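Progress report, Aim 2. The chain analyzed during this reporting quarter is listed below.
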Amino acid sequence: MFKHYLKTAFRHFSRHKLTAAINVLGLSVGISAALVIFIIVKYDYSFDKYQPDNDRIYRVVTDGDGWKNSGVPVPFVQAFKQNSGGVSAIAPIFDYGWNTPVSIPEGSNKVDKLFKNQQGIVFTDAGYFDIFPYTWIAGNASSALKQPYGLVLSDERAKLYFPDVAPEHLVGRTVIFNDTVKTTITGIVAANKALSDFKYDAFVSLSTVYNTGLKTYYQTDVWGSTNSSNQIFVKLAPNVSEARINKQIANIFDRFGEKNNNGIKTIHRLQALSNIHTNPSYDGQVNPETLRNLTILAIFLLALGAINFVNLSTAQASERAKDIGIRKTLGSLKTQLIAQFLTETFLLTTFTAIVSLALLPLLLMVFGSFIPEGLTAVYILREPMVWVFLLLLIITVSLIAGLYPAFVLTRFKPVSVLKNTVVSSSGASRSSWLRSTLIVSQFVIAQVFVIAVMVVNKQVQFAMQKDMGFRKNAVINFIIPRNFAKPDDKGFILKNKLNALPGVEAVSLGNQTPAFAGSMETSISYKEKGKDVTLSVASRNGDTSYLKVYQIPLIAGRNIVASDTANELLINETLAKQLGFMQPAKAVGHTLDFGGPKPIVGVMRDFNQASVRRAVAPLVYFAAPKFGYVMHIALVADHTTWQKTIAQIQSAWKGVYPDVDFEYHFLDEKMENFYQNERQLSSLLTWSAGVSILISCLGMLGLVIFMTNKRVKEIGIRRVLGATITEIVTLLSADFAKLLLLAFAIAAPIAWWQMNKWLQSFAYHAPLSWWLFLLSGLLMVTIALIIVGLRAGKAALANPVQSLRTD
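Predicted structure tokens for the chain:
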């Protein structure tokens, strides 16, 4: 019986090659997209699953007024260790810093080996290995990081530093970080190969921080500073609730933190390990909204392909009616006929799945910006879950796309079929209504995608062109090597050299740029004339040239005077207003408590401190060039001289830091990364809109071909009676035009609702203009009617004699 089903199915496909091709093309895109998206989603939700009892592992995070941070104040670490219960392990992790230089002593007769720009270096203690297990090759977790200056290396990092020494023979060797922190290897562990956001290769004992000048840099006694570089993980004991530990954390801050934090109230709580990778609010690598959008996209594309299948199958009902009637007359059961149609659907879907596998490399390119490193076509095909998913997809699509046509076609009565009255039955009318509904559904989806593309692109353009309140063109930045345990004057020497270059307008040494992808918060208080205001504010610091580099105007007062410490403050307009000064000039001369009383000497014009997603926050600027680690350079406007000037800057750099590579970036290019997610979304929506339009138009083309074939004789008679080609094309296109307009009428409010909701996530956004909707609607209707018109025109141009020859 099954062999007969196969023969019948192949015979049907060979007679309807174009319809089969349309179904294969539509379904193959949907299946391949669903396959790739399944792998992406599965990959991103697989992070940090290797730890034993990972459901009991949490990170302590900080929520402030309008900001979130994945770190905690450094003194909280010791306070929590001494005042917590119900916790089986505690793991502090202090990031060592950016691009750390590492040297390996080679003895008095040899030059030390130098390794530049080393990453993955942290300060921690034995608790880290209780939460994130490693295989120990030498040493042990309990003692390796117990004493100051202890160092544990991964076997991969150990092989880099000591290529000719076996790992078990490295204990006792010396490794120097930043020319000052001299550590001794106390353990070697196997590199972590699992999917994790916390994979490090060098672990320095945390007690080193408390026994060097790093104690000041890491602010080990400052409760009012929160930095994402200083994190703490905890593993709860069995049957201990998250709420219990959150209460303990709150009590610790009430007892120790708030009295040392100018009274600013922040919330510190646990964040589940499973939530870290997919929570961008706390520096997560993936936005769950992106994963949801990808999943919805896969469902839509599969639905579009299935709609085509249902549409074309029900449209062919009258052509297969006689076959069904004869089979029923000869004794075929309804279940046998349903099995026949499901077999056809299953074969077509299986063939489509094979085609979709061939499309995988192309789809990987399309989703390139979403594909994690290492996810290649070979990796995907080797993953067992991929084949399980593909099989389930084939079965599901076969049932969804095949069941309805099967039930519709098997309902025909043999008597009606053999009398040629099936086409005029109510069942045919219902099928026609269903086809219209499905066509509208297809074009609603496509129309929403088109509108979304236009809105997202307009918002990205708005964000890139918005006046951020500071100069971002012709400005370059680079990080200078800084030993915060023992600051030196090399940064000032380099700055003076750069100031002398003819292609440089201004140079400043400080911390971050006016806007960057992160946050720096501090606390201030204002107590004057009965007011007692405490605020958490953004901060920037550096020298007196910062405002000149970025052309940030003062709207009241003056600039700070040159100083190594914060003796004076600049504030922005927003902070002045929050302090109660509606006229900025009136804020000048008043005092803020900022590590002691500091006078406000000037008010800066507001500038954006991050992307347009975030509103301008209150901000203070103060002098601290001694701890500056970013050089800010404004180049002359003539871009033809930039290459020469940058070469001169590099030469000056080599004169001060001969052993460190020179790396710089243009600020405006760096700021483009603020909108990487939006550009990814735009790319995804553009591709989705194109594919949905293609699939929808393919389905419409199939229906137009079917309808024109059914009306060949009608078209011939109209031509003979004098109808023009234009009139015939208009007649054949009118019904489709009505459906397209109905689709637009449904899609427009849906798109407005969704895109307006999306735009609300931006503090500053472009208006949701009506002309975007009109333009997208005209675009969609034009494309679809061109396809309908071309096929209808071909039918109208046919020789009426040929059309009527059989009558």
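The longest helix spans residues 426-465. The chain has a mean pLDDT of 82. These observations will guide the mutagenesis work planned for the next reporting period.
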